[in-house]
Design brief:
By secondary structure, the protein is mainly alpha-helical. The chain has seven helices and no strands.
C-alpha cells in the first residue's frame, strides 16, 4: 500500500469526508436529535398519545396503532445505528465491527402510510413525530450510505490524462454519483 492509497481499489487521493462528518459536531447534533426524538415519542405515546387514541373512531384507532408501532420500530432502529456510530467515534469498536453489527439494523424498510386514507384522521402530534422521524431516517440513511458503501465500488478512473476527469473521479469517490 502506498501513501497515496488507503485501500486496494480506491482512487489515489480519495477524500473520505463522511468519516470526518460522522465524528464531527454535526454527528453529535444528529445523535442528540435522534435520542431526544426517541424520548419525546415515548413520553407522547405513554401520555397524551394514549388519551388521543381513545378518542379516535375505529378505523383511525387501527391506523394509530399501526403507525405508532412503525414509529417506535423506526426510532429503535435509528437509535441503534446512532449508538453504533457513537461507539466507533469513541473508539469502543472499529468501523468494520460496526459495519458488521449494523447489518442487523434495518434502515431502508421503515415506511409509514403518510398521506394514506386514515393519515388525516391521526392526531397532529403523532403525524408530526412520524414526519420528524422519517426526515431523521433519510439523513441517517444518507450518512450510512456514505460511510459503509462497498469499497468495491470505486469511482470510474479516467482513461486519459484529462485533469478535469481526474478531479471529477475524486469528487465521485468522495460524494458518490451526482447529477
Amino acid at each position: 500500500m502506498t501513501e497515496d492509497t488507503k485501500k486496494a481499489g480506491e482512487p489515489v487521493g480519495a477524500v473520505h469526508i463522511a468519516h470526518h462528518l460522522a465524528s464531527s459536531d454535526s454527528f453529535q447534533t444528529l445523535f442528540q436529535e435522534g435520542m431526544s426524538l426517541v424520548e419525546e415519542t415515548a413520553m407522547y405515546l405513554d401520555g397524551d398519545g394514549r388519551e388521543e387514541a381513545k378518542q379516535l373512531p375505529r378505523p383511525a384507532s387501527l391506523a394509530y396503532a399501526t403507525e405508532s408501532m412503525r414509529l417506535t420500530t423506526r426510532l429503535m432502529q435509528l437509535a441503534s445505528w446512532l449508538l453504533l456510530q457513537r461507539a466507533v467515534n469513541e473508539g469502543e469498536m472499529s468501523r468494520e465491527q460496526a459495519g458488521s453489527e449494523k447489518n442487523k439494523v434495518r434502515l431502508d424498510k421503515l415506511s409509514s402510510a403518510t398521506g394514506g386514507p386514515s393519515w388525516s384522521d391521526l392526531p397532529e402530534s403523532l403525524r408530526a413525530l412520524i414526519e420528524r422521524s422519517t426526515r431523521l431516517q433519510e439523513r441517517i440513511v444518507h450518512l450510512d450510505t456514505m460511510l459503509y458503501r462497498k469499497s468495491e465500488e470505486p469511482a470510474e478512473e479516467a482513461t486519459n490524462d484529462n485533469p478535469v476527469a481526474s478531479q471529477l473521479n475524486k469528487l465521485h469517490a468522495a460524494f458518490g454519483k451526482f447529477g
